């Protein structure tokens, strides 16, 4: 029936939209600070995978890229901002204008770990109110600044991006400022940061093991961590060899791998160490990943398929359940990617196969040791960690609930030999000079080729040259006026310490160098060695100079590299 026009005055629109505040609250209410950072890292990993898929890449046994070396993301936390920078593939105009900030468009990434176009928007809205981005895909560079009102559905404040000629350095850079109080409280807490490092190690353990790099730099806490992945592999030489099966469920492939933790050694084996075995207990159990992103770690919970009571005969058992699909929407995880959908038919079909795998492991271990003539050894094998069993299985299903563990070392802690023949030992060196800094890169390369045994004087001269050029470049990046090497080095050290690039002991060491005119390890002393016709530095002294100055030089170059990438406004 047609609507009557009798008495008609005018027509007007009826607003059926959603307020920006409501949309923001709906998207971010249940998202933690850490999950907001995860969304940003997921975007970077998807971009890295896209880049690999466009080029030749090595495929692993699971059908996913095996090598992510050269790709990475850096997260920098300042007093009132968070900055995220990656070098993965950038974002093109089409994606930026129509997909990157558009809510609920399905992911177009093959084997992606981002479900919908919700992660980036959710992360930005969760953390703060003011945003900036700069993306370069090698063809064009796009930049824009906007606020939370611009991405809450307000058509009158749509973000405008400016396009520039590419700098030929692929990157995606996001900055969030005017942080919300909840976010600031988390990000500036040392305890929160320690927990974040551990969870990053687990959540992205597979990617990190494959070479992807994640750096967390907290200027407020004066901490910088190059995250190392925790993703247990399996022994290939143990009493029980790894088992592997592949199952196809439509367009989803499931790979189940089980065996002995790669570091677990049974009593009676040559390298057995009870103390080391006990440190591994928190890593036993079932792991679940979706397209290499770890969702559940070391679970022995019934909901994940572990039906038996934990027994010491399960010690060393590790099982990986890897869900793989080109379409991330088919994987059995929730939209926040923080848990499995344990009611999905796919998960339920897989779950029922897991307890028999664990029981087979227990049976094999028991069978192999039950016939040993030395019964006491058998009992030791089966019971050596009975006292640990009750500690292991609490709050371990999700990476966010991990217990405290020993942090892996980022580099060996053994002291270098002062009598070594090579000046720069690559196994211990902290300093890394980016290759796009051609002059400084070649100075450092020449320094690394010198033998302190054969040419100690040349070593000291090159240390002096490299030291001065490093301090000069760092002072320029820090906007410090050059005075002389000694005074400027101290100013640089103090600023780097304030920014979290070097530790307090390194700063104090530089201070001693600068304030002691004739000190053996002072910067002035190095200058005198170079110019004196009477003093000839020995091999151990040349090595000592490098070893003492390496952490300071490394801090200089970490800052310089961040300056090159982030720009001058990175300083707080």
Search tags:
18 helices; eight-stranded mixed β-sheet; 3 domains; alpha+beta; 13 strands; Ribosomal Protein S5, domain 2; 572 residues; HATPase_C_sf; Heat Shock Protein 90
Question: In words, what does this structure look like?
Answer:
This is ATP-binding protein. Pfam families: HATPase_c_3. Residues 368-415 are annotated as: Disordered. This protein is α+β, with helices and mostly antiparallel strands and 572 residues long. 38% of the residues lie in helices and 16% in strands. It has 18 helices and 13 strands. The strands form two sheets. Strands 5-4-3-6-2-1-7-8 form an eight-stranded mixed sheet. Helix 14 packs parallel to helix 18. It is globular, with a radius of gyration of 28 Å. The model is unreliable at 372-395, 402-416 and 568-572 (pLDDT under 50).
How would the blueprint of this fold be written?
Layout: H1 20-28, H2 33-54, E1 72-77, E2 81-86, H3 93-98, H4 119-127, E3 128-136, E4 140-147, E5 162-165, E6 171-179, H5 181-187, H6 190-203, H7 205-209, E7 213-218, E8 223-226, E9 243-249, E10 252-260, H8 274-279, E11 285-290, E12 293-299, E13 317-324, H9 345-351, H10 354-370, H11 375-383, H12 386-392, H13 438-448, H14 456-477, H15 485-499, H16 504-515, H17 523-531, H18 539-566
Helix pairs in contact: 2-4, 13-14, 14-15, 14-17, 14-18, 15-16, 16-18
């Amino acid at each position: 029936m047609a609507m009557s026009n009798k008495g008609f005055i005018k027509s007007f629109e009826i607003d059926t939209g959603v307020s920006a505040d409501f949309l923001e609250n709906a998207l971010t209410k249940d998202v933690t600070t850490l999950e907001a950072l995860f969304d940003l890292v997921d975007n970077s990993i998807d971009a890295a995978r896209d880049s690999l898929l466009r080029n030749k890449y090595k495929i692993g046994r699971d059908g996913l890229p095996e090598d992510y070396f050269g790709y990475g993301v850096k997260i920098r936390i300042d007093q009132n901002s968070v900055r995220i920078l990656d070098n993965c593939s950038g974002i093109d105009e089409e994606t930026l204008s129509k997909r990157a900030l558009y809510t609920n468009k399905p992911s177009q990434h093959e084997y992606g770990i981002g479900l919908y176009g919700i992660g980036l928007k959710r992360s930005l809205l969760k953390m703060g109110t003011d945003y900036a981005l700069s993306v370069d895909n090698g063809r064009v560079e796009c930049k824009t600044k906007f606020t939370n009102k611009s991405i809450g559905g307000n058509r009158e404040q749509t973000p405008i991006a400016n396009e520039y000629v590419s700098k030929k350095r692929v990157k995606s850079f996001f900055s969030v400022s005017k942080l919300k109080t909840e976010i600031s409280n988390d990000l500036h807490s040392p305890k929160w940061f320690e927990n974040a490092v551990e969870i990053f190690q687990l959540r992205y353990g597979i990617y990190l093991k494959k070479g992807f790099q994640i750096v967390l730099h907290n200027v407020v806490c004066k901490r910088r961590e190059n995250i190392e992945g925790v993703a247990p592999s399996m022994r290939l030489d143990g009493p029980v060899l790894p088992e592997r099966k592949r199952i196809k469920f439509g367009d989803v492939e499931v790979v189940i791998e089980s065996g002995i933790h790669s570091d677990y050694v049974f009593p009676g084996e040559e390298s057995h160490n009870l103390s080391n075995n006990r440190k591994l207990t928190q890593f036993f159990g079932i792991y679940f990943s979706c397209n290499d992103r770890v969702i559940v770690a070391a679970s022995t919970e019934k909901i994940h398929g572990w039906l038996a009571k934990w027994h010491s005969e399960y010690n060393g058992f590790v099982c990986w359940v890897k869900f793989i699909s080109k379409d991330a929407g088919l994987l059995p995880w929730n939209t926040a990617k923080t848990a499995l959908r344990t009611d999905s038919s796919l998960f339920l079909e897989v779950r029922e196969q897991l307890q028999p795998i664990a029981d087979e492991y227990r049976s094999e271990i028991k069978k192999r040791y039950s016939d040993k003539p030395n019964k006491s050894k058998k009992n030791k094998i089966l019971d050596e960690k009975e006292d640990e069993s009750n500690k292991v299985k609490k709050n371990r299903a999700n990476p966010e609930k991990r217990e405290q563990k020993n942090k892996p070392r980022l580099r060996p802690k053994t002291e270098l030999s002062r009598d070594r023949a090579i000046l720069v030992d690559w196994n211990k060196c902290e300093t890394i000079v980016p290759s796009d800094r051609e002059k400084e890169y070649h100075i450092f390369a020449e320094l690394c080729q010198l033998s302190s045994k054969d040419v100690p004087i040349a070593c000291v001269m090159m240390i002096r040259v490299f030291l001065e050029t490093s301090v000069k470049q760092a002072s320029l990046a820090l906007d410090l006026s050059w005075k002389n090497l000694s005074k400027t080095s101290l100013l640089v050290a103090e600023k780097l310490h304030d920014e979290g690039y070097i530790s307090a002991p390194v700063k104090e060491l530089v201070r001693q160098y600068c304030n002691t005119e004739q000190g053996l390890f002072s910067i002035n002393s190095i200058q005198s060695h170079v110019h004196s016709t009477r003093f000839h530095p020995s091999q151990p002294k040349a090595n000592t100079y490098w070893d003492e100055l390496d952490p300071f030089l490394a801090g200089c170059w970490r800052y310089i590299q961040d300056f090159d990438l982030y720009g001058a406004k990175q300083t707080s």
